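so the lab meeting is tmrw and i was supposed to have these ready like two days ago... anyway. pasting both below. for each one the top line is the aa sequence and the line under it is the structure tokens. i havent really looked at them closely yet so no promises
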Amino acid sequence: MKGNPGPSKRRRALRKGAIGRMASYVQLVLVVIAAVIVVMVCYTVWRREVPALGIAKPVPHATGTRAITMLPPTPTPSVTPRKLAINPAVKGKHVGILAGHSGPQNDPGAVCPDGLREVDINLAVAERVAALLGEQGCTVDLLEEFDERLSGYRADAFLSIHSDSCDIPEASGFKVARVLHSAIPEIEDRLVECLYQEYERATGLPRHDFSITPNMHEYHAFMEIDPQTPGAIIELGFMLSDRDILVNEPDRLATGIVAGLLCFLEQQVNLD
């Protein structure tokens, strides 16, 4: 018959059991930590590949199969267009306003994936510009893109109104240009600068002049109008990022353009 194990043997057994339980606990903790790390890595990879829900989504491009990322339009603070004072100095001045892509040629210009058309923006602004210039006592011709009247057209100022496309989600702003090889460069530079100054002031949009293209400098209407007619082309803004102001506040855009034209016409009167 064996006797009861001594105290030392019991302590060793208890210690061995405690160590075993501790090892099992540590092993479980390590498994949990490893699982958490795997989940975090998978989530990070998923966030890199999939845009956050409600912030961006792929939308088919209007003219091809390429997809673009559509971001929400940049909101523009709503401001009531300032009232333009009547300037007697410009009464009787002759101005030509061309609504880009308007006319029977069936070319709406840029078209966004949701159907927003450049020509509709251009025409809405051009009509308001013509009306405001008429209130100033100016003689105004509202011209179409390939208007027969462009050939040898003579006026105190000529402006073609266009809008930029939906293809560049991060782009916002406007730009103004004149013909590259001008017969009257100093005069046309004053027209361009007046439009930049007053349109920026009225709309709050930034200048995006670093994106001016050769197509703007070599715009077909510049080659058709009389070389002594000061002319310019303006891109009102981008139809994605600047959509809010382009669609909802054409009066602000028109006020900025007219203020720029009045600035130029008054300068010309003072120089004559």
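ok protien two:
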Amino acid sequence: MTEPAPPPDTAQRMRHAALHLFARHGYAAVSMRQIAAEVGVQVGALYNHIPDKQALLFQLLSEHMTELLQAVAAEDLSHAPLAALEGFTRFHIRHHAARPEAVFISYMELRNLDAANFALLEEQRQAYETRLRMILEAGQADGSMRMADARVATRAIIAMLTGITTWFRDSGGLSLGEVEEIYWEMVRRLVAG
């Protein structure tokens, strides 16, 4: 899947350009000058919208996590644990497959956040992981799921599902629905009680 077209205003175009450039070249290799050139403005114009490149990276990562948390909150995951796990699995795949660049930098560029920004982003990531961990713990409690450690299983499942964005393409041999089916079966077997 492709990222959405660049929005019209400078701040949004700046974020879109930075997302694309960071995903393609890496945060450390991209300058504010390159971002400005991509947007079609002078470098100084970017500083009307963001204080520095670190703040821009944090904004991109935080916006991604905020959107993810809002989207998962809108999902009905109140079913029995196994059905809730299936819902979470399918949601995660669909949501992330539509945003491969945002997902890529959200995982690969964490190392470039300063300590304060990393701590804030880690809170958001923990909130998302907690949604899945609670489903797994409920499955352990009712006997429908078995695993040695729900926290480790949470991280393993999220890593597996997120990895789809590195290889899935609409033009590939499988549809997103087929990928969902295959991955749901793998997740189900991972926690089979």
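from a quick look at the 2nd one: The mean pLDDT is 92. Residues 59-191 form a domain with the Tetracycline Repressor; domain 2 fold (CATH 1.10.357.10). will dig more after coffe
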